[in-house]
């Protein structure tokens, strides 16, 4: 990787040029990967493979995903003829956690600890091997927590002074309608749970369908307050709260 100039990259691109952002990011970095889980991420993959056939993709397997989601991952792998690096939780840490807390502690203690073991730790391990990553984050996905989302940024959550990590969010300004218009036009594969009322899809115990006119994140961790509805994968985008 050459010395990446973030400010120059932002100046050369516009927030609504998703495909150009992806293509440029792939040119800037050899050691870059797409994080894949939902509908937005397949849009990224579809755009990326049109520019680079050997694009690197990874997905987090928490061990608690819906059967439909596992089928979806395999469908995407075959559809684009790409390898998908499946990241799993550390077996010993997960065993210790479930032995102490059981399988459904998040309904009583909140989801952060479970997500930390099943999602954040495997993600951190993967990101430690990369110079940059591409996500499908959108500003409108969560109530307030993702309003400060740039299409290109230094990842404040997972970077270090010794090893900077850059993060690209090409769909930051897209709406859910934009995503689904792309899916329909280009016949992009999608999780069949979307046809059953699911919008934001995570682990099976923590995800449910939403009613008409409900925000998509209301189907995630519905027993918690809306400001807590982040799993920790994108904590660098959270709006800080005042400390008492």
From TrEMBL:
- Taxonomic source organism: Marinomonas ostreistagni
Q: Where does [4Fe-4S] cluster bind?
A: 114-115, 203, 206
Q: What is this protein called?
A: Adenosine 5'-phosphosulfate reductase
Report the superkingdom from the record. Answer: Bacteria
**What region holds the Phosphoadenosine phosphosulphate reductase domain?**
31-209
What family classification does the UniProt entry report for this protein? Belongs to the PAPS reductase family. CysH subfamily.
Q: What is the predominant subcellular site recorded for this chain?
A: cytoplasm
Residues the record marks as active site: 231
- Reactions catalysed: [thioredoxin]-disulfide + sulfite + AMP + 2 H(+) = adenosine 5'-phosphosulfate + [thioredoxin]-dithiol
Q: Which UniProt keywords apply?
A: Cytoplasm, Iron, Iron-sulfur, Metal-binding, Oxidoreductase
Query: Quick one: which gene encodes this?
Result: cysH
Cite the cofactor comment.
Answer: Binds 1 [4Fe-4S] cluster per subunit.
